[in-house]
Amino acid sequence: MSRANSVVNITEKKICCGCGACSVICPVSCIDFTYGKRFNYPKVDSEKCIDCGKCLKVCPSEFLLHGTDPEFSKQTEIEDLKSYLLYSPDDDIRLDSSSGGFITGLILHLMEKGQIDGAIIAKSQGDTPWIAKSVLATTRQELLDSRASKYAPVSNCTALKDVLEKPGRYAFVGTPCMCEGLKKLQDVNPVLKERVVLSVGFVCAGMASRQSTLAFLERYDVDLEEVYKISYRGDGWPGNFRVFNKQGEVILKKPLLGCSLDLVVPGDHYLRCNNCLDHWSNYADIVVSDPWKDDMVDNEMKGWSGIMIRSQSGQEAVDSAIASGDMIANEVSSEEMYNYNKHLIITADHKRHSWMALYQLLFFWRFKGMSAVFRSFLKWQGPGLLTTLRSRFDRNYYENTDPRKKLLKANTGATEHLRLRSEAAHKK
């Protein structure tokens, strides 16, 4: 087996995003997708591998092997896309979703209208709910059990194997890198192109490690043997982090703002997230986000979803849901949509350029872009640089539990001012 011609090269360079696309395309099923203690990643059986290189062709991280231009000037271009603020009028859906209930409401609408037979989603429920599992949901209850964001490693492309075995029309929900993995798989597999008729991506700031969730549970003395379900969001907007036992009782409840948004979401990301240029799901038909704006924080209690439409199929699905009354919508400008998460637009002076330049230096000895690295050090923009440096010399990167020690010492406060404003709205 040639390491240069398989995802072994990706895992060794520590740029796996955990999407799972490689395990779907392998013609001899020699890739076992693993739920590591820290991150999800593929293991390749070298004795079975036929060195075909197909796994690399569908990998969203493959471009980093060839070197990158740290300037990425094209990424500063802003697209003018039709955008909406909307929510599900069904409070059972809306209140227990991340924000507005758009994804669950849309999928249920499309299923009820016979336009799709189900959707690939992720759920954090079962004997080890801190390990989010990707599933092909085909019933209302399966969808409701999987509502809201999962701030932990998820590998939704792995569930595309079920799509290949089960004829029908399906939707796919995932992060930008998962949507890219899906698109690459569809480019080489006509069956997936025919069966996955809609992709819904997130505006994504990065995928937190499994250790982030475990550290949060340990911080509040949660007994893992009691945990049956983890809801990272829901319970109104902006929502609460909740842990349930098998009897459905809440054994931990902490606010998103001023707590889990500070301690779980940004705590410990894949290194690949520091080398990402697609926060806005460029390969998805519909892009979904929280509309973080002042009037939402100060007044909203149930939640709205912000979306951008990238394709005709995405527009037709949204139009159908609005026309039937299954979604309440207000059209907004694309500029407003971008402003809800403007920190995720990679401009010419974004520190992402320095992180990517340092990665290329440490892993490939390519020196282009080092001026950006020096500028970041001078501006004290060190976290991404330190993450890259630590990862380079971490021999147990995907399974390492050491980050939990640091996560347990992390402090809240970054979003405390938003929590106070939101709580005031809820008390009105």
Note down, in words, how this protein is organized.
Helix 10 crosses helix 18. The protein is 36% helix and 15% strand. A hairpin with a 5-residue loop joins strand 9 and strand 10. 50% of the residues are buried. The longest helix has 13 residues. About 2% of the residues have low confidence. The chain has 2 domains: 262 residues, no CATH class; 49 residues, no CATH class. It is built from 19 helices and 13 strands. The strands form 3 sheets. Strands 5-4-6-7-11-12-3-13 form an 8-stranded mixed β-sheet. The chain has a 3-stranded antiparallel β-sheet with strand order 8-9-10. Strands 1-2 form a two-stranded antiparallel sheet. It has 428 residues and is of the alpha+beta class.
Which structural class do the helices and strands define? Answer: alpha+beta
- Give the end-to-end Cα distance, rounded to a whole number of Å: 64 Å
The low-confidence runs, each spanning 5 or more residues with pLDDT under 50, are: 70-76
**Major β-sheet strand ordering:** 5-4-6-7-11-12-3-13
Approximate shape = globular
Rounded average pLDDT: 93
Give the count of structural domains. Answer: 2
Q: So how many helices?
A: 19
Largest sheet: 8 strands, mixed
Task: Tell me the total number of β-strands.
Answer: 13
- The share of residues in helices is 25-40%
